[in-house]
Amino acid sequence: xxxxxxxxxxxxxxxxxxxxxxxxxxxxxxxxxxxxxxxxxxxxxxxxxxxxxxxxxxxxxxxxxxxxxxxxxxxxxxxxxxxxxxxxxxxxxxxxxxxxxxxxxxxxxxxxxxxxxxxxxxxxxxxxxxxxxxxxxxxxxxxxxxxxxxxxxxxxxxxxxxxxxxxxxxxxxxxxxxxxxxxxxxxxxxxxxxxxxxxxxxxxxxxxxxxxxxxxxxxxxxxxxxxxxxxxxxxxxxxxxxxxxxxxxxxxxxxxxxxxxxxxxxxxxxxxxxxxxxxxxxxxxxxxxxxxxxxxxxxxxxxxxxxxxxxxxxxxxxxxxxxxxxxxxxxxxxxxxxxxxxxxxxxxxxxxxxxxxxxxxxxxxxxxxxxxxxxxxxxxxxxxxxxxxxxxxxxxxxxxxxxxxxxxxxxxxxxxxxxxxxxxxxxxxxxxxxxxxxxxxxxxxxxxxxxxxxxxxxxxxxxxxxxxxxxxxxxxxxxxxxxxxxxxxxxxxxxxxxxxxxxxxxxxxxxxxxxxxxxxxxxxxxxxxxxxxxxxxxxxxxxxxxxxxxxxxxxxxxxxxxxxxxxxxxxxxxxxxxxxxxxxxxxxxxxxxxxxxxxxxxxxxxxxxxxxxxxxxxxxxxxxxxxxxxxxxxxxxxxxxxxxxxxxxxxxxxxxxxxxxxxxxxxxxxxxxxxxxxxxxxxxxxxxxxxxxxxxxxxxxxxxxxxxxxxxxxxxxxxxxxxxxxxxxxxxxxxxxxxxxxxxxxxxxxxxxxxxxxxxxxxxxxxxxxxxxxxxxxxxxxxxxxxxxxxxxxxxxxxxxxxxxxxxxxxxxxxxxxxxxxxxxxxxxxxxxxxxxxxxxxxxxxxxxxxxxxxxxxxxxxxxxxxxxxxxxxxxxxxxxxxxxxxxxxxxxxxxxxxxxxxxxxxxxxxxxxxxxxxxxxxxxxxxxxxxxxxxxxxxxxxxxxxxxxxxxxxxxxxxxxxxxxxxxxxxxxxxxxxxxxxxxxxxxxxxxxxxxxxxxxxx
Length: 1004
Ligand SMILES: Cc1ncc(C[n+]2csc(CCOP(=O)(O)OP(=O)(O)O)c2C)c(N)n1
Ligand SMILES: [Mg+2]
Description:
Elements: E1 2-6, E2 16-21, E3 28-29, E4 34-39, E5 44-48, E6 53-58, E7 65-66, E8 71-76, H1 82-90, H2 98-107, H3 128-145, H4 147-164, H5 192-216, H6 225-241, E9 253-255, H7 261-270, H8 276-279, H9 313-330, E10 341-346, H10 353-357, H11 359-364, E11 370-376, H12 391-402, E12 405-409, H13 416-421, H14 426-433, H15 436-445, H16 447-453, H17 459-464, H18 470-475, H19 483-495, E13 501-506, H20 531-540, H21 547-551, H22 563-574, H23 595-601, H24 611-622, E14 632-636, H25 640-643, H26 647-652, E15 654-655, E16 675-676, E17 682-683, H27 688-699, H28 701-704, E18 710-716, H29 721-733, E19 739-743, H30 762-767, E20 772-775, H31 780-796, E21 802-806, H32 822-827, E22 829-834, E23 841-847, H33 851-866, E24 868-875, H34 878-894, H35 904-909, E25 916-919, H36 924-928, E26 938-941, H37 952-958, H38 963-976, H39 982-991
Helix pairs in contact: 3-4, 5-6, 5-7, 5-22, 6-19, 9-27, 27-29, 33-38, 38-39
This protein binds thiamine diphosphate (TPP) and magnesium ion.
Thiamine diphosphate (TPP) binds at residues 226, 259, 309-312, 346-349, 375, 377, 379-381, 385, 509, 524.
């Protein structure tokens, strides 16, 4: 049967041009194969075939204009009902037993509940007998019908109470005790004695390493107290849970709390991975072989995986890492091996908005591959985290509210008998009422103090501990220091399904440090322990070192054949290898053939388009390359329509782990909002931090998942580096490979949006990241040459760099690529045009981005009206030129006897005459960067100052970067250089109505 393929609903557009015809008569095509590409003045989008079959007639050609309903082709197809079937599948209706259940529930007669007006609950138990009956009923249901039924009943009662108008108890938090009841704790299979010894040695060596470094110089710093509080949390994971990457398993990913790094080095020392010599080089990294202060993959690329020490970045990056792992699995690019992402963070660190900012996403995405461990030692750097409150309860509320599985590990096993003996709940009441500031003081002040201040409040509690000595009371441990409790929580977290888990563990900062730093406000900064402190620490953990050895701050490492070392190695062997370890087995992606980019090298003729459109077109083409297509990860924080990228929605789908449970409002449209489980686009919503975290996860997939991915994160340039600069820095550290695209860039190019939108400095910010390569291209072919080279360098040659490219929303026509321009485009500048008609006076006119076009227009005026010739340079990257300039200058300074080497800028300009006039849509310091690398007089024009909303023409006039200002200022510069009389400039100022009294734009 013959079917007509018509142009579907393309949104608000009429008469849209066909820019590509992707099939020919006689082709056998599949459902959804693209037939043509349409381009409006904002975006380009492929039209997929609604049928499979053979093209028997093509009704259009390139250049034709079509609208909704236009005939594109005729197809002979066997399955005439194909489309219907497809639509029916899309409208997947979910039938469950739900309705039946609801009906049954409604049939229960429950109108007998009396409605009351809201009243807060009474604090006193006015009828203990009745209370008892209720509790007994509950126990009986738990006993006879099981906990699930009991929970159901409670929920039912609570919802009835709500309907009745009662003030409900605040259920964000649970009592201040461990979530897992003692009886339910899964016991560790480990040998506790050996593990305790190992932990003690690790503690000792970590502290010794920091103290030793500070003997060399107190400049070196370091932390003892943090790892001292977290040692058990790490050790249980290392001995029992964290599986390393090896040939048969992808590996769990562990985000270590940055300043607990000494503990990881100390363990690696026992494992034989680091030598004593290396430990002695903690924080002395300038000579090769030192250990980095914190986890920095850039500095220790075979060890650290995740830069975490800028607080808050680790947690959010890990959330998106867990999400990206599911994305890879759902897209069929990785096997689901049940890998987990573990994240360690401090309680103080949760103050950072980034730490908790994405926890609801983690729950929404059902990231049960994610486990947070918040080390609640109740202190941060200066003092208590929540002296007047309870950080554990506060966090529980936030995480529960967001939908996480929350496991509190507050009390250690020594408390178990006391809690068991507490029949009236008074101990629990006391635990609930004490605030963190007090809890902290108690651990600083000893057992007698705890007896008095904690138990002393109620005579019953004094009685409860009457048979215990002060020392016994002092030994009442906190959950995070009890390997049994920690094991049980980790075990439960591993089993949990359907939501992420947070383990909130209570610990003591500086645990075991005694007077030198246990639970005192200055613990965080403690990096020097004197002899007495060290002896105390040794004794506290029974480290088998003599006094002499302690005085020499020797490390302790038992013999290779000792039971401790054998045990430690055997445990890691069972878990697949050592952690942390960074490696990559990813295969490079072959850069696409040149022909994919060929169309961008030609002139667009009269057709005007923006570089953002060029980029989107290029990505569309790349989606046809079999090597590149599956690896592309387009990332957009709710701006696809701004950038003309909405065509991707339908074409490659938006990633949604649950697919699409609704029929989108625009389902009939060509770029309808299609969410699918195998979707490729990461549509992040309005979160630049989240989108950047996704980008980092994808950009480091080559090491964390052994698969090279090509993330392309397109942001509104103003909300890029300025907003997420710290992430970009971390990305550099993590050796991310991928593209960041600053769209709608330029202070005057984005016209109407005003001060908070117009970016005139992102390139400066990008230039500060050593491995970020950045470009501000003007023309379609520049963009194509740069992008292709980025693919080649990063993803085929595996250079550890990432690209920042600005793209604009100004439409103009693009010329053909000049012959031989490629090298210059990539190095940062090339000669675009030369005016040699009049001859005598010459200038070197440089421009980048859309302002290059103003420069080109100015050159014409200068030539036609003032007899000034110019060489016009398209500067694709002032940043790259500066890097080259700096390097060459340094080499020349180092080798004063050698022939002077020329920088690339010098090579370009050497044989050219006249001053340089450089003009961009960015602040002057952008182009000023290359001033030192040429002897020529240098004048820069730029957009210093706050942006504002107006037309492009007015804005360029305001910032003095339009062609008229370029002409006038050039003439004035020539006068200053005594190459021309000043009258020409004065005439131009007059002619162009340039107000000399206007204040400098930074002051306006
Ligand atoms: C963004 C950022 N701000 C400040 C710091 C400096 N800093 C390092 S550790 C620390 C205190 C950390 O307290 P907490 O998170 O409770 O960790 P703890 O050491 O108590 O485990 C601070 C402020 C940092 N590393 N990153
Ligand atoms: Mg803390």
